[in-house]
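Progress narrative, Year 2. Work on Fructose-1,6-bisphosphatase class 1 from Variovorax beijingensis advanced from sequence curation to structure prediction during this period.
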Amino acid sequence: MAQQQKISLTRYLVEKQRADGLIPGQLRLLLEVVARACKSISQAVNKGALGGVLGTAESENVQGEIQKKLDIIANEVLIEANEWGGHLAAMASEEMDSIYVVPNRYPQGEYLLMFDPLDGSSNIDVNVSIGTIFSVLKKPDDTPGVQEADFLQPGTQQVAAGYCIYGPQTTLVLTVGNGVAMFTLDREQGSFVLTQEDIQIPADTKEFAINMSNMRHWDEPMKRYIDECLAGKEGPRGKDFNMRWIASMVADVHRILMRGGVFMYPWDKREPEKAGKLRLMYEANPMSWLVEQAGGAATNGKQRILELQPTKLHERVSVMLGSRNEVERLTKYHAEKA
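Result:
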């Protein structure tokens, strides 16, 4: 039997560009550059202690979180890779206070790129899967130059989104709005190879992911849902649930894309003025789009995350995503309380 031909990320994107016109040339370039940056980050992550990249930097990011050395390295890799290509107008990142406009010495493109350069920072030093999340928007045509307001578009406006997970394999997961494709890094070849297309999340699941230690701080609907899961076969759900929590959104979402499940990072009363912990623009939006493209659902407990109108760059949001039937149940419980 002839060996099946490997389809590289580049070929996949070129064929998408040709066939469906889904990917304009500039967007294809952008996605290839992001993938290349992820390869560099993957190498830094793989070297670990040997590369002198572990541990804490002497700084905090805009959210007041202690930065790890690898957070900063990953951020720089993404900026340096993307700033000169001519496909971007500006970038925004979890690790930067305000937007990064492409310097004047380079041509300006029509796209905006947002990223969480290294999600799951608490896991960097303990050899647990971490990843890079990204989201691409088109700059509004009617504005000269580029400002922060240009980024504040609802998730429905995304033109591409994805993440790269650095685990036992380095895997790139991508959507441009017609399903979800997965590429695995072939280290010998140095290229991402298509390993799965049209990923579908099962509508039902027996697996939930949440940080149970915060239970006393949650809202009633959230407590009710988890209590019912914990009651198992004898409870109202009539089935036993398993719990998972990796504390790395990329890893938790990746598991859900591969085998179903529901991931929750709800509002809690320790910081009642904040809608949640996760960031809407460069964590919740790209992940929600991927999950929806794979047949799942994503809400903040009240409404679809992708329809939320952002008001600031680092806005936070409550997140419930994954297997459709579970997310719908959760949303229903929140609606009943309201």
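The chain has a mean pLDDT of 93. The chain has two domains: 9-196, 207-335.
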